[in-house]
Each structure stands twice: as C-alpha cells, then as structure tokens.
Amino acid sequence: MTDITSSAYVRQDLLTERPAPMKTTGFIGLVRTRLLNSPTNILITIISALLLWFTIVPSVRFLFVDAVWTGSDRAACLTENAGFVVGACWPYIQAKLPQLIYGFYPEAERWRVNLTFALAAVLLVPMLVPRLPAKGVNASLFFFAFPVVAFFLLHGGGISGFGVSWTAGLLQLFDDSIIGAGQVLLNLSKTSAIAPLLWAVGNLILLVGKAIYWLIFPLTSLRDQLEGSGQSVWTDFAITTAVVSLIAFVLGGGVRTGWRPLAWSIVTFIAVAIVIKLMGLDHGGLAVVQTRLWGGLLVTLVVSVAGIVTSLPIGIALALGRRSSIPLIRIFSIAFIEFWRGVPLITVLFFATYMLPLFLPGNFTVDGLVRALIGIALFTGAYQAENVRGGLAAIPRGQGEAAAALGLSWWKTTSLIVLPQALRHVIPNLVNSFISLFKDTSLVSIVALFDLLGSLRASFADPKWSTPSTLFTGFAFAGIIYFLFCFGMSRYSLFVEHRLNAHRRN
User: Fold this and answer.
1) What is the structure's pLDDT at 315?
2) pLDDT of res. 7
3) Which residues contact 393 (CB under 8 A, 6 or more apart)?
4) Which of 51, 334, 360, 499 has its CA 20 to 30 A from that of 477?
5) Whole-angstrom Cα distance, residue 1 to residue 7?
6) 103-127 pLDDT, tens digit each
7) Which helix (H) or strand (E) holds 237?
8) Rounded Cα–Cα distance for residues 327 and 324 (Å)
9) CA 40 → CA 34, 43, 47, 112, distances in Å?
10) Is 296 helix (H, G, I), strand (E, B) or coil?
C-alpha cells in the first residue's frame, strides 16, 4: 500500500495555455470555413463582394437615398429643382398607380376589381395554410365558383338562361357548323372536277345535320318556350337543378347511397341562386366593362392565374394520354404536345387573336382576352405535360403492380398512388413553369392587351412626368412587383417540397 502511494505522480507546476480551437459557428465560422478557406474561395469572395458593391449600393442609393418622395409634377424630380442628382421619382408612381393596377378600367367601377382581389385572397390564403380545415370546400370554391363570380364582377352583364338554354345553344351551334360544312361541299361540287364525290359527301353531311336537328329539337323547342316566358332564367334554373340533382342521386348509388350527393347538389344550386340574386344576374347584372379597357396588374394576374390553373390539368391529361396503351389517344397526345412545344408563344398569341376568328362560324365570336387565355393555357399545358411525364417515369413499376395486386382499378391507382408521387417529384419543374408563365404575360401587349408592362410603357407618354429618371423608376417598380410574386411562389414551393418529402429527411 505504501509502495503504491509513493509511486503516484502528482504534478506540481501548471501546464502552459493552449491556443483556443478555431471557431466554426456563427459569422466568423462562416467566413473561415466557407469564404476564406482556400485561395479559390478567397478570389470568388472578393469578386462577389465587388459585384454586390457595384450593384446593390447604387440601387439602394437610386431607390431610397437620392429618391424624391413628394411632388405633383415633373418639376419635383428635376435635378435643378431638387438641388441634388435625383434618383427614383416616386411621385410619378403615386400618380400612375391606378393606371398600373387597373389600366383603363372605369374609375367608378374599380371597386369590382378590388372586391375580386379581396375574394381571391380570402379563398387562396386559407388553402395555402396546411393546418386550416375544409381544404376540399375551399378548393372547390376557388377553382370552380370564384372564376364565375370574378367574370361577372370584372366583365359585368347578366344571364338570360341556364343549363337548358346553354346546352341547346351549344348543340345548335354544332349542328349549324355541320350543315354549313355540307353546304360548302355542295357549292364546291358545282365547279369541281370531283363533283360527284363532293355532292355525295355534302348530302351525307347535310343528312347527318338534319338528323342532329331533329334529335335536339325537343331541347331547342323547350328553350324557345322558356325564352318566351317572363321568368326564363328561374324556370331554366329550376329544370337544371332537378335534372342535375337527379343525375347525382342516381350516379351516387340511388336510394342506398345517393342521398349525400343529392344534398350536395341541392346546396350547391341554392348557393348559385343566392349569387344570381345578389349580383342581379337575372336582371342584367353589373354594367359591362369591355376587356379592351382592362390593363395593368389586373390583366397580368388574370392571364397568369388562368394559365396556371388551367395548364396543370391539361398537362396531367396529356401526360397520361402519352403513356396510354390506346394508340389513338397516345398519338393525339404526342402530336398535341410536340406541335405546341414547337411554336413560340408569340406565334400562339397572334394565331389565337387574329386567325382563330377565321375558323369560327360567322355568328360566333370569342373575346380577345379569352382567345389569348386559351392560347396560353394550351401552350403551357404542353410544357407541363412533359414535366408530369418525367414524374410519372420516376415512379417504380412496383407501385402500380402492388396496387393491381390489391384490386385497385386504373383510375384509383393513378389518382391515389402514382400521380401524387409523380407530382411531388416534379414540384420544382412545375413551379419553374409557373414563374416563367407569370413573366411571359408581358407578351400579351403585342396583341393589344395592356398588362403591367404595357400600362407602364403607356404611362411614359405623359409629358407631365417626363424626366430623366422616370423610365428607370417605372421599370424598377415593375421589377419589384414581378420579383415579389415570383419569389413568393418560389419560397412556397420550397415549403411544400420540404413538407411532402418528410420521409427523406435525416
């Protein structure tokens, strides 16, 4: 015991201090480990700092430090009056802000635009927050009810009929087109070298047109009787409600399980009736504002939101059609996608605006903005189809085989298993297309539609605000608006991607 104690070593002097370990956290750690940890990174850091210095600092000086904030005309933004080199002329933006938002929309009716924006925000924000309930009802209101309400708010006008009148009108237009085609062939048979063939085909088409006429005659006759009565809208509405509710009841399972679809159908039609009564659609509705008076941010949002909402279902349908085992559907989908992806958007807008009316019947017209919306939706849908197809190709084949082993049909397998996973894989590509579409809305100005940039360029012609900094101020303001929307979409897509890929986190 004594030997063990005597052999123990006890230090009598203190050790010298060692240098502190290198800090790897915080700002100093970031600089040491990421910015200045190698000669290459040091060079890149210096170049990046110089670029930021020569871009961010002048921008801040122009937008805030040297800017003019108050004034009633161009005199406030002139250097000789301000006493310094003037940067941004914000009084110009304040004076032209209504034009940049509404275009030439009548000032007395701009409350309708504000109400539309407010309804869109009220319906969209709860749908983007994951924890809020009733996502199905919210989505139905935003994607189905809101577009109709927004149309009557922004455009105005009323309705003279409902389901019966609309269906009869479409069928009669289709029948008139067939009969017109037959008449054209008969006229050509009088001077053509293949007159017998054209005469036979023309008479055959006329025969088909007459058969369709007698098939839809009960419906068109009912429409004419409704138009002759004093309450055509509400009588047509009642008939449509009864027919649609009966169809929902039968398809929902009849007496056994059809009561819930029947209740939802009746509730939906009651809500539609309330909207019709509140907006006075049965008595002409609001004053009509032609789309040629729309402009500014209103047109930008209408075109971009309509294109985004309609292009995704079109893309999904085309992507599924391209993978279909039915040759006709697959060939049509491939031809559609390759055609629309092979032409520039400017060509699509010109065709939709100036050439599409040449292919329509003489008594049928389509609004210019609607034609542009259709062209943009089809064009963007073709690109979305390839994005969705890439996501479908990334799904392992075993997913579908497992669903088939469980007895699921193709529709349930696709909608519940394959498609959700495919869309989750291609969220970045889809949002990238949405951002590109939002910025490409400026192309509608070439077809006489004034979006945000079009209204901005039109405001430059006002001599009251003609200053050296007006042009740069306007484009800086437009750039900020575009950046806010695009950055918001980008950040929300990252949030959704992170939330849906929880199974891949470490």
Assistant:
1) 95
2) 58
3) none
4) 51
5) 10
6) 999 999 999 999 999 999 999 999 9
7) helix 232-251
8) 7
9) 11, 5, 11, 58
10) strand
Angle between helices 368-393 and 297-322 (to 10 degrees): 40
Given a contact cutoff of 8 angstroms between Cβ atoms, the answer to whether 446 and 349 are in contact is yes
Tokens of 7: 């052999």
SS3 333: helix
CA distance 489 to 436: 11
Please check whether residue 235 is in contact with residue 163, taking contact to mean a CB–CB distance below 8 angstroms.
no
CA-CA distance, 326 to 389, in Å (whole number)? 17
How many residues in the chain?
Answer: 506
In sequence order, the 6+-apart residues with CB closer than 8 A to the CB of 250 are 258
**Terminal Cα-to-Cα distance of the chain (whole angstroms):** 54
Contacts 24+ apart (CB under 8 A), 65-73: 73/464, 73/465
**Which residues are registered as beta bridge partners of 157?**
286
Cα–Cα distance measured from residue 399 to residue 392, given in angstroms and rounded to the nearest whole number: 11
Q: Which residues, other chains included, contact 391 with Cβ-Cβ below 8 Å and sequence gap of 6+?
A: 421, 422, 423, 424, 425, 426, 429
Cα–Cα distance list, 87 to 77, 466, 484, 491 (Å):
8, 14, 22, 31
Q: What is the DSSP string of 21-67?
A: PPP-SHHHHHIIIIISSSHHHHHHHHHHHHHHHHHHHHHHIIIIIS-
Distance CA 152, CA 119 (A): 13
pLDDT at 356: 75
pLDDT (0 to 100) of residue 199: 85
Q: Which DSSP string corresponds to 132-195?
A: SS-HHHHHHIIIIIHHHHHHHHHT-B--S--HHHHHHHHHHHHHHHHHHHHHHHHHHTTT-TTH
Furthest-apart CA atoms within the chain: distance in Å: 134
| Whole-number Å distance between alpha carbons of 434 and 432 | 5
pLDDT of residue 338: 94
Q: Which amino acid is at 489?
A: M
Q: Rounded to whole angstroms, how far apart are CA atoms 368 and 346?
A: 15
Task: Determine the Cα–Cα distance for residues 269 and 188; give it in Å rounded to an integer.
Answer: 49
Whole-angstrom distance, CA of residue 417 vs CA of residue 275: 37
pLDDT of residue 499: 87
Question: Which amino acid is residue 239, in one-letter code?
Answer: I
pLDDT at 173: 84
SS3 content of the chain, % helix, strand, coil (to 5): 75, 0, 20
Tell me what pLDDT residue 123 has.
93
pLDDT attached to residue 174: 86
479 sits in which H/E element: helix 470-500
Residues of the chain short of pLDDT 50, as ranges, are 1
pLDDT value for 386 = 94
- In angstroms, the CA 244 to CA 263 distance is 12
DSSP letter at 71?
A: -
Q: How far apart are CA 451 and CA 100, in angstroms?
A: 8
pLDDT value for 482: 94
